[in-house]
Amino acid sequence: MTENAVEMRGIVKRFPGVLANDHVDFTVKVGEIHALLGENGAGKTTLMNILYGLYSPDAGEIYIYGKRANISSPRDAIKYGIGMVHQHFTLIPTFTVLENVILGYKGNKVTLNLKEAKRKVKKIIDDYNLGLDPDAKVWQLSVGEQQKVEILKMLFRDAKILILDEPTSVLAPIEVKGLFEFLRKMKNEGKSIIFITHKLREVMEVSDRVTVLRKGRVVGVREVRETSESELAKMMVGREVVFTVKKEENNAVGDTVLEIKDLWVKGDRGIYSVKGISLSIKAGEILGIAGVSGNGQKEFVEAIIGLRKVDRGRILINGSDVTNAKPKDIIKFGVAYLPEDREETGYFHDASIRDNLCTKVRYSFLKRRFFLDHQKMDKYAEKLVDEFHILTPTIWDPAKNLSGGNKQRLVLARELSINPRILIANQPTRGLDVNATEYIRKRILEAKKRGVAVLLVSEDIDEIMMLSDRIAVFYNGKLMGIVKPDKVSLEDLGLMLTGMRKVEVNA
Amino acid sequence: MFKWIFRYRIVRRTEPLTTAYIIGLMIIAVLASMVISSIFIIPLGVNPAIAYYELFKGAWGSKLALSETLVRFIPLLFTGVAVALAFLGRFWNIGAEGQLYLGALFATYFGISYYGVPSYIIIPLMIMAGFIGGSLAALLPAVLRSYYEVDEVVTTLLLNWVIYFIVQAVIYGPWRNPISAWPESPAISKEAELFIIWRGTRLHAGIFIALGIALLYYVIYKKSYWGYEIRLIGINPKAAYVQGINVARNMMIIALVSGGIAGIAGAVELMGIHFHLREALSHGYGYTGIIIAMLGLLHPIGVMLAAFFMATIETGSQAMHRATGIPYPLAYVIEGLTLIFVLIAVFFMNYKIEKKGEKT
Fold it and tell me: Which fold does the domain B33-350 belong to in CATH?
């Protein structure tokens, strides 16, 4: 019988409003590469953060090599031989590789034995063919090399169980190959590797076993050689789609309002995140954009509303070219926008609810060229608070005191109050409770009925299926196809989401 | 030993604060700084209560004392408003000191070049020159910040010294007063001097200009469309940009107006008190303006009260020095500590301490 390196039993983790892990059982054997598969928000990273001591579970037990472990901090985790490489690196750019590796490492002595540390680092680099120079400054390294430094850090601390959170998302294909070779080598030395991913191809290529999580629960555990991509896709996306909001069929689809032609947009790292996407939306239609986060949706949306530079391609609203226009000009075309990062760009936390509601149509409160018509603003705000059922004692309370759902109502009220022609909703219900979610969805459908062209970006497949007239699937910055929700099987959708299948674009 | 600390935790406030509570916090901040400052008074063998009594007596206790406090109040109100306006739109203007000096330099040019021009022409002209000089001092940081995202804290702060040395170069060199032993410019024309509004004191008409600017700030803050936009920018510049506000252009205007107001402070000090461009035209008014803006929580009335308080401390400390022997720079110790306690108070406006396990 093979020994279990990690055994997590009945792990429960609750966040305000969300059950991130619901009685999760998870085991990793010694000397295996174990993939943890699931959509965003499925609870993969939460589970691993618990194992690494970043979160403490509300319930459940952890056994490391058969012994009950009490892990309350990463320091404890390292003591148990667990290392984790996060999606976002924690390196200091101006330090050398060696300095980064020994940073925070105490060892046994009070003093630092640099020579010995360097010898050890060199030995690890040679053993695993990492090809790093211990004296190179980290800022000079490529992303792939920086990831190696992170792994090196863990190996230096004698990690026997290595957790990698979406390790391939930052890598070029050639680097991915290198990483996989390295993982196999570690496996052969008896180390255990946990590999968090949402990419099916990688699961099939490199891992031995896979645990699929969905909405905080384990859907199943499979031996990779006994399963198929389509089975995993189905497990990951889920079977039942719960229709909570009734979508009315309406054929009153009008003219094309928003048209995007061969759009190329760069991401924060300076490489293309949107690679030649073309699509169009008609009045009275909801186009859903499905995709696992980080596949270009954010950049795509930001390019449309003028927050991100378009490198190639064109954006047309009602036939007018608005490519690379500023947000203030795009607003004039009647574009409403529900941002994904509500806290960051959605509203003004320290301003009153009244002041928040009035920002979009602030021109209409201009009085005698210089002044504000306060009475008009009060009335306007009161009206919207009533109409959108924003729960607040008065319109003078600061917006930051609202609950998440009410904040989203506030943003929605402000955006819809301009009678928009286009509504761009990016993750409109993420993190909201059931009531608020339903309300927001109802409002989006109402807007559609009034003839608004809606672009709905969501990682919630159920939401996309429920609301959209057509679904565009993004993968790796490209369009995998446009499908109708009633004509596509979940299996196919799962395969498209993970980049395994492309459907001819005919819409 | 300190285990009890772990029974408490800091949590975000969710309930709105009342105005009285906020004012109370600010008063506590001021009192705390005065109490802590006692540490420096006690070793000198003076009872802090007596020291502070002498301080307030020296600031408010006589016609001369009160008038001198008001004289100090004038530049501090200007710089306080200048900094508050900038901070409101999140332009961290640490350069009011330099802007004040460049404003004074520009005003001096008209003051010493046009003798015999009537007051109603030369005074507005010099105030305008002060505004333009101050704006100019803020121009480079404003452009760099608005369009190139260069940190304005560094640029405005460093420019203070550049401008200070330009003023020195001018008064030691081309504009040196030939009939004075001190490095200073020639006297400005008699017509350019602001008239005294309280006989027998130095209190001059500049106080009306300062109050006028404060009133203007009140209108901008409370009533104006522009004030609404810059408040939104100050709260969340990213969201403001998404809402279609021209953040960069507004940032430019805020910076230039803020610099201009500080520049007027320089012109008014020149025309009301010094009459010569001097190295010691400002006693750190630009820096004190930062403390005033923070203590006043950027609110027009708060800024006015804070400016008056700082004027009191600075003027009264001189009298305290004479009466008790405590060095007058204690005033700056109090000011500095006030800033620290205000920052702590601001923290407690957003957070509170509660016992673990208690329901919020």
Answer: ABC transporter involved in vitamin B12 uptake, BtuC (1.10.3470)
